[in-house]
Amino acid sequence: MHKNSKRLPSMLQVFLVLGTFLALAFSFTAKLDLPIQLALCVGWFLAMGLGVKLGHSYKDLEAAAAEGIFKGMGAILILLAVGALVGTWIAGGIVPSIIYYGLMSIHPSIFLLATLIICSMTALATGTSWGAAGTAGIAMMGIGQGLGVPAPVTAGAILSGVYFGDKLSPLSDSVILASSMSDVEIVDHIKGMLPISLTAYILTAIAFTIYGFQFTGNADMAQVQAVMEVMESHFSISPMAFIPVAAVLFMLSRKMPSYPVIMFGSVLGMLWAILFQDRAPVEALSSMWAPLTMESGNAFIDNILNRGGMSNMLGSVAVIIFGLGFGGLLDKVGILETVAKQYENRITNEGNLTAYTVVTAFFANVFGSAMYVSLILTPKIMSGSYDRMNVDRRMLSRSAEFGGTLTSGMVPWSDNGIFMAGLLGVSTFEYVPYMWMSFAGIALVIAFAYLGKFRPDDNKYVKSLQLQPV
């Protein structure tokens, strides 16, 4: 008896697997208050069951899931490092000092604009949206709540900034992944995104500036003063707290690997806790694993400062492991390839091609539960259509980045959605309406593709690229 040959799934089979997973993910998170990890675990067996039916062996499917997980190990290590960094930087008085000086100097009317700029510059310099959110983002959440700005709005400004900076940084994993999977040089990839990204950024900055004017007279200065007094009573506030921040940003800007640099930053935070906060060495070391328990009597302060530690990231680690494995199974079984074949004939121009690429990247986030899955699978699925239509691969890498990176924080059960919601203390559904940079960027990249503007193979674009060394 010959083994069944492997074959692609039908659209009905694809609909049953993905529809069941999506229903489970939504019902578990929104209705039953169950962890998304369980839905992802069930998703593995749905995909594996279909794979076996289509002629794949269980060992091959297990290997595909393991390979998918392996591709995301870098993200898992960085996630744990960011947890350690946040925990020690709070224990060492670094985050409290930033919040204190921020409340002292930032006016409520420009707070959202300042948040956008600070977070974007941090992500651009470091190449990590998670690191930027875990440092500058945490501080801006504290300042914003002290100034009376709603937490979801502040979170939206933070995410708009960190994803903008991450998307244009040559140090970013997402930039490297999107360009390499599309066979595009990193510099060319960034150049292709720059005009549209800057346009979206300017529009976002204007929107947050106008929106921020309403908070000019709404800041509760009594609360601001109370927050500053609590900070002073529980921490030794000092400009010295900015030294670890500057050190980490400098090392990341020098293209040093993210994981050891962020872990080194957590060691600095531990030393600051011992030297400047008079904490016992064991207590300072413990803050790398679990946050210090702080009861100041101020709910806002406790909410901001009782965070961090590797242990608080373990749930997100499980999401990434299950999500990456699920993405590997979807690729192996051929589910996303089947979906791509269905709309391949509908792609008749560059506008349609860009729109379908962005949509594919978004749904790879939805069903793959991880940005890495999206940036790996989207170029693989869509590259044939770009080559068939003789469209520059730089448009593929650009569209995959816009669709994969800018939507990664919008999915409640994705790695970015889980991480950002847990870190910032705001649910995904609450902050998504304020991710204005993401919405503007996606709308513009599709609109300009239909209009034929900012094409990578424009004459002036090609001329500028020729100035770059090979």
Automatic annotation (TrEMBL):
Annotated transmembrane regions = 37-55, 76-103, 109-133, 192-213, 233-252, 259-276, 313-333, 353-377, 431-451
Q: Which UniProt keywords apply?
A: Antiport, Cell membrane, Membrane, Transmembrane, Transmembrane helix, Transport
- Predominant location of this chain? membrane
Keyword Phosphoprotein listed: no
Location in the cell reads: Cell membrane
Gene designation per UniProt? nhaC
Protein name in the entry = Na+/H+ antiporter NhaC
Q: Which family does it belong to?
A: Belongs to the NhaC Na(+)/H(+) (TC 2.A.35) antiporter family.
Give residue ranges for domain Na+/H+ antiporter NhaC-like C-terminal: 161-452
**Source lineage:** Bacteria, Pseudomonadati, Pseudomonadota, Gammaproteobacteria, Oceanospirillales
Q: Where is the signal peptide?
A: none
The way it spans or sits in the membrane comes to: Multi-pass membrane protein
